[in-house]
Amino acid sequence: MTKGPEKNTKNKALHTKLLNRKKTKLQEEKKEKAIRLKALVTKMNQKKTSDE
User: What is the dihedral of CA 42, 46, 51, 52, to 10 degrees?
Assistant: First the structure.
């Protein structure tokens, strides 16, 4: 009984590594965007209270 073709685990590992890198990059960008948005909101709220 013969085995099937060898599995190419190297490419799969590289693909997983790249996907994980992409996922973490997107998470970081999302966090940075939230921080910038929060800073902008606080700045606008301070401006709004100082105008009144």
Answer: 100
- In terms of Cα–Cα distance, which of 18, 19, 23, 16 is closest to 31? 23
Residue range 16-41: mean pLDDT, rounded: 97
DSSP 52: -
What amino acid is encoded at 42 in this protein? T
d(CA 51, CA 31): 30
Tell me if the pTM is above 0.70: no
Tokens 């994980």, residue located: 20
Query: At 13, is the secondary structure helix, strand, or coil?
Result: helix
Helices (H) and strands (E) in the chain, counts: 1, 0
